[in-house]
Amino acid sequence: MHDPPLTFRPATPEDEPFVTRLVPRFVEFGLPSGHDPARLQVSFHRTLNGALHRLPAGHAFYVAEQAGVSVGFILLEVRDDPLTGARHGHVSDLAVTPEADGRGVARALMIRAERWAYESSLPYLTLSVFATNARARALYAKLGYAEDLLRLHKTVAPDVASTF
């Protein structure tokens, strides 16, 4: 038995309950040390809610649906590369429902992102992913995404000033 086809539509403010329900998915895989899951969820919610109500020009926010049921979303931004200054697309946030895990929804959302970038004349896409999110990293690798800049993180101890 095959799943019904996926469709994509622009997200609207009415999608806020659906999007909010998926915010915990951003931290459920375990976070690198020094990251507070509750604070991150607040930050994700703020970003996503802001985009639902005031999407900047050129950006895109899509909801994936299957048989009329929302199963995932992706928020896409236009950014300037910090190293070259080149305008490019950036996958800000992507989440799928637990029921959609393993059914190709995230992959389809990423392909939709590539189509958006192409249609927007953006030469490439970037994204950030927590090092601990092995499942997402594996998907991105299968889709041809390669590491090009690593961000390192260290929590600074209160006594750091006394070490010099």
Report on this structure.
This protein is of the alpha+beta class and 164 residues long. A hairpin with a 2-residue loop joins β2 (60-66) and β3. The chain has a single domain, classed as 3-Layer(aba) Sandwich (Aminopeptidase), CATH 3.40.630. The protein is built from four helices and five strands, in the order βααβββαβα. Helix content is 29%, strand content 23%. It is globular and about 60 Å long. A five-stranded mixed sheet has the order 1-2-3-4-5, sandwiched between helices.
Brief synopsis:
By secondary structure, the chain is α+β, with helices and mostly antiparallel strands.
Topology:
Blueprint: E1 6-10, H1 16-22, H2 37-53, E2 60-66, E3 69-80, E4 87-96, H3 105-119, E5 125-127, H4 134-142
Parallel strand pairs: 4-5
Antiparallel strand pairs: 1-2, 2-3, 3-4
